[in-house]
Structure formats: C-alpha cells, structure tokens
Amino acid sequence: MNIVSLIKSLPGACSQGLIWGLLGIGVYITFRVLDYSDMTVDGSMATGAAVAVMAMLGGMNPYLALLLALIAGMATGLITGFLHTVLGIPAILSGILTQIGLYSINMRILGKSNQAISVDKYDLIVSLRYIPSAIIVSLLFCIVIIAILYWFFGTEVGHSIRATGNNPNMARAQGINTNLNKVMGLTISNGLVALSGALYAQYQGSADVNMGRGAIVIGLAAIIMSEVIFGRIFHNFALKLFAVVLGSILYFMIISLVLQLGLSTTDLKLFSAIVVATFLAFPYLKKIISEKRVRRTN
Amino acid sequence: MLILENVTKTFNRGTVNEKVALDSLNLTINDGEFVTVIGGNGSGKSTTLNAIAGVFPIDSGRIILDGEDITSLSEHKRAKYLGRVFQDPMTGTAGNMNIEENLALADRRGKKRKLLWAIRQKDREKYKEKLKELGLGLEDRTEAKVGLLSGGQRQALTLIMASLQKPKLILLDEHTAALDPKTAQIVLTISNKIIRENNLTALMVTHNMRDAIDYGDRLLMFHEGKIILDISGEEKKKLTVEALLKAFERVSGTEFTSDRDLLN
Question: Which of A44, A153, B183, B211 could form a disulfide with B179 if both were Cys (CB 3.0 to 4.6 A apart)?
C-alpha cells in the first residue's frame, strides 16, 4: 500500500463525500424520518445529473440548472408517492417501479448513455480539477440545506411529516393526512438526491445513465456509519444531518483506502453491500445474543 | 349530539371468516353525556368506536355528529371533532418525539398546519400548566422522548392531547386495559376529571364492569353487534355487577363470556 497516494486521495474523497452527503440527507428523510425504504434514489440521482448537464450544455446558468435538477428530482418523488398512496402499491415496489421507469426517461434526457461537460468550456460549480474549491462549495451546500431542513422539520408541517413516519395511527387521530405527508417527504428527499446527482455530474465532468446505480446503498452506508459513530453524542436534528454528511465523507475515505489496498472499482459495490448489511444486522444480532445470555443465566 | 343510524359492518364478507360486527346499530348520545360501554369479546364495542373514528368505512347506515353527516369523511378529517385514546399506550403518541412536540401536534388538530415554528413560548407555558394538573411530574420533562415514558404516563399524556382542542366527542377504547390495576385507576381518575371539567361528551369502552358502573352517566352493553342493555340515571347508580350479569343472561339468553371479564 502506498501511503503517499492514499493521503493524496483524501481531499478528493472528502469533496466526493460532501456531494454525496446531500444524497445521504435525502435518504435520511425517507429512511429515518418517514420510515420508508425509497428505492427511487438510484433513478432520481441520474435524473438530477442528466437534467443539469443537458441544461448547461444548452446554455443555462449552472445555478439555474441545479434548481431545475432539484425540481425534476422532486417530480420523481411525487411519482413514487402517487404509486404508493393513490394506487396502493407497496412502498419498496413503488420506488423500484419509478427507478426502472426513470432509466428510460434519463436516456431520453441525455440522448445517449453518457454526456460529458468540460470544465474548460463551462462554468461549473464544482469540479475534481479544483478540489479545494469543490470542498468549500459543497460544504456550503450541505450547511445551507441542513439549515433549511432544520427549520422546515421544526415547523407545523415538518412536525406532521415526522409524526407520519413515527406513528401513522397517532398522526391520523390528530387530523394529519398521512398520505399527503408521505408524498411531501418523498418529494423533498428525491429533490435533494437529484441535487446531489447534479453536483456530482459537474464534479466528475459527465452525466451517466448508470451513475445512480447503488446510490441508495451509499446513502444508507453514510446514515448507518453516522449513527454508529455519532449516535450517542448528536441528538439535535441538524447535528444528526451533519453526521450523515460526515458518514458520507468517511465512506469515501474508506473506499479510497480499500482501492489502495488493491480492490478494483468494480468490487466496490460488493464491498458497500457487505458494509451496509453488517451494520444493519448489528443491532439485531446484539439483541439476539443478549437475549440468549439472559436465558442462560435464568 | 352523536347519532348512529342503522350502522352495519361486516368483516371478511363472503369468506368463511365472515363476521357481522355491527348489526343495524342505533344509538344517540346527548351533549355532555359520559357513556360507558361493556360487552364480551367480539361484541362490537371497539368496532363502534372505530366506525365513529372512520378507521374503516361502514357498509350501511349513517353517522351524524352535531347535525353533520360524517359517514363518508376520512379518518384524518373527522379527527377535527374527535379526541381518541387507544388500548395500546404506544398508539396514541409519537414515541420518537418529545412531550411538547406531541402536545403541539395535538394542539393543531383540526387546524391548518402551516410553515410556522411548531412550538412557541406561550404554548410551552400552556402545556406545562396542563401537564401539572396530571400530578405525574411530566411538566419537568417536556423535552423527554415520549418513548421513555411508562404506559400510564403515555395514556395520561394522550388524554391531554385528546382534550387540548375541545373535541365534540372523546373516544376511549379500553384505554386502561394494558395497564396494571393501580395505574389503571390513576388513569381512570384523570379521564373522569378531564371529561367532567371540560364538560366533554364521552364514549368509554371498558372490560371492567365495576368501572363501567362507577363511572359515567349511562351504561351500554353490547352483544353480537347490538346494544342489549342501555341503563342511565338512578337505575345506573343502583347497579351492581351481579345485577348486570343477570340482566345480560336474561336479555341475551347466554352466559356472559369474556375471558378478561371472568378474570377480573
């Protein structure tokens, strides 16, 4: 293992982690706040990337292009929400259906499977060519988004989304339209995921129809690592979201490490899946083991 | 005033498990009346409360509350008029949210929820005042997660939540059944106090005949989806458990069967 090249790779991992941190926050809203495993993410991330890149290639201001990507992402969440609440399709399947459908739509938007956007010709917001500035800009994005979400989930509307995810029976008894709130949560979540995709496409200089594949697993990995490491210290909602960003940074640093250790990039998906499965299984196995111990001592 | 007109509900219609839960039920409850409901397992008492709350649509009949036909109104829309406390202490509150957040959610029942900060300073004081009346010390723990509270504390909190915005009707569905006897009595006393002090119209299902006799102005007994006994006024005051059991046998032609009632 080459220590020097590992250290050299860390700033890149940090900026990647910050950009994917926005996706992590989006996944947190569905997975933790709404208690909804939303598979739309893998499609909506590429949608965000495709919309932003095509808009900029067409001459749109990069910030407006980000806004457009955000709106497109929100629309994808709206579709999943519609499938689930209006048509009664189970949560996971609704997300999978949207995600599959989005593949075709993303191809239509991009025109081909990959569209490059050069930092030399376009005024990109973040680029891996200028990592220090990418770190600062993406960190600012994270801070602004966390601030907005902290405010939003402290409002009456935000509270009703939290109650919907926590206890739908109670929410309905308190006059909350749980279906509407699920759709709202999915919409916000996928908007953020698409925003993350749009930034990431600029960062790597291209939008690819397959770039969202496995994104949900990376988002989950960021959430779970953040909870294992910071769960006991961070109780404030804003800090919890910030911890997800830190989890995401850590994830990409671990990825650089295992790449240095000789794993190939195609092995990474298996690696991520194993990491997430292990951490998700951890609390369950801990409970089983402690129950067995109790039985034995009795 | 609540009026149930020929309300019928059959579960699992057309299958071997078909069960007539409510059989052309008629019931009128006047404003300010505190009604206790008893009945064996599957007699339709909880089904009646759930039908009123809109948990499921009824097959036929009408439900009228203060002159408004709410039969086809969705559950969350009816919530505007109803306070509800459930059998399972977990059901009535959001365990991952803290006490004041739960109260704030209940304080907006029936109102439009806006993009305004959910808990304001003057609300905080109001909530503390209400919690103090419980005498459980919850007023000092307003930022504690509700999931950390005991079953009795959660039920007491749910009672406040149900009455914070005065409901036209409060529905208590065996809300002390999951508690130990001592806590159950505390929660019942609190329920009675809240109902009387706010002059609420109440429908309380209980599995305990003693409680059904001791509390409320009127007692209903359910059997096979129908009301077979309706006792109020002086007659109710003089009622005993033995007399109630005898009356049940006389009216229904069977012995009173409920595993829980027998155990009590």
Answer: B183
Nearest of B111, B108, B113 to residue B127 by alpha carbon: B108
Separation CA B231–CA B203 (nearest Å): 14
Count CB neighbours of A174 within 10 A: 31
Quick one: pLDDT at residue A298?
60
Is A114 touching B (CB cutoff 8 A)? no
Q: Tell me the ipTM for this assembly.
A: 0.92
Helices (H), chain B: 45-53, 75-78, 99-107, 121-134, 151-164, 181-197, 209-214, 233-237, 241-252, 259-263
The answer to whether residue B148 sits within a structural domain is yes
DSSP 3-state percent helix, strand, coil across chain A (nearest 5): 80, 0, 20
Nearest to B91 among A152, A163, A169 (CB): A169
Q: B59: pLDDT confidence band, cut at 50, 70 and 90?
A: very high
Partner-chain contact A163 B115, CB within 8 Å: no
Cβ neighbours for B72, distance < 8 A, ≥ 6 positions apart: B57
Whether B263 shows a pLDDT value over 50: the answer reads no
Phi and psi angles of residue A231, each rounded to the nearest 5 degrees, phi first? -55, -35
Q: What is the mean pLDDT of residues A87-114?
A: 97
Domain count, chain B: 1
Domain of residue B135: give its range: 90-165
Q: Global pTM?
A: 0.93
pLDDT confidence of residue A12? 95
